[in-house]
Amino acid sequence: MPVSIKVRYFASLKESVGRSEDDLEFAGLSTVSKVWERANSGKPLPRNILAAVNMDYVELNHAVKDGDEVAFFPPVTGG
Amino acid sequence: MTVKICADIFDPWQEIQAYQNVAKEMAGKFGATSIFIGTMRDFNEGDTVKSMTLEHYPGMTEKHLEKIIAQARQQWQILDVLVMHRIGNILPNEPIVLVAVWTSHRGDAFDANRYIMEALKSNTPFWKKELLHSGEKRWVVKNSDGYASSQN
User: Fold this and answer.
1) pLDDT digit string (tens) for B117-148?
2) In this structure, is residue A18 part of a structural domain?
3) B118 with A51: CB under 8 angstroms?
4) Alpha carbon distance, N-terminus to C-terminus of chain A
5) Are B61 and B144 spatial neighbours (Cβ–Cβ below 8 Å)?
6) What is the CATH architecture of B2-22+29-140?
7) Which of A35, B99, B113, B135 could lock onto B34 through a cystine, CB 3.0 to 4.6 A?
8) Which residues does chain B have within 8 Å of residue A47's beta carbon, measured at their own beta carbons?
9) Which of residues 119-138 of B touch A (CB under 8 A)?
């Protein structure tokens, strides 16, 4: 059963990848790091980039499921 | 407990007053209010900064701030919390962030405010991009530890 994933990019990472989101379909289960590779033609994830699934921080080996929103972004600088 | 993300300039003093006026259940109960206001400087890393754009992750930002406040409530006896944060284009001297904490006693107010503010700085999804006097635009890459004596 195909797995649909929405990918979002923020801040300087959004500028460097040149887009704010991707919609991907996987044949089966995958992980956050595989989502990055698939969306970015196998390019390695830049250092220090953080990941979130459904708006909670996760490690890169976190498994994704159908309908998940996966976000990648640089270290935060608010306040 | 209220979290507000503001696309427009706000007056933190008016916001605190208005919040306190309607929080009737707190009346007579709070003995301490700690207030932190972060304001935009016109300098950073040795450069003059003309303006700044603040980006956030709508949804995750609010969710994360609510989680931080819940964590603070587990550690200190808190009556109420108001957190406000600007997004969009910001000019020097404009407020960026407000954290107000109402408690019965001062220790809880001071400590909880510091905790919320440090957690906001270190892991809530906001990103600053500066426009320098020179015309250059640059992303702020990391937060300082909060002390002028640590700056080079």
Assistant:
1) 999 999 999 999 999 999 999 999 988 888 98
2) yes
3) no
4) 43
5) no
6) Alpha-Beta Complex (3.90)
7) B113
8) none
9) 120-129
What is the pLDDT at residue A9?
A: 98
The DSSP element (H or E) to which A69 belongs, if any, is strand A69-73
pLDDT band at residue B152 using 50, 70 and 90 as cut-offs = low
Whole-model pTM above 0.80? yes
Whether the pLDDT of residue A32 is over 70: the answer is: yes
Give the model confidence (pLDDT) of B61-115 as tens digits: 999 999 999 999 999 999 999 999 999 999 999 999 999 999 999 999 999 999 9
Structural domain for A50, as ranges: 3-73
CA distance B122 to B8: 23
Domain extent listing, chain B? 2-22+29-140
| Distance (Å) of CA B95 to CA A30, B6, B9, B12, B145 | 42, 11, 7, 7, 19
- Per DSSP, the three-state class of B107 is helix
3 state DSSP class of B86: strand
- Which residues of A are less than 8 Å from B141 in CB distance? 74-75, 77
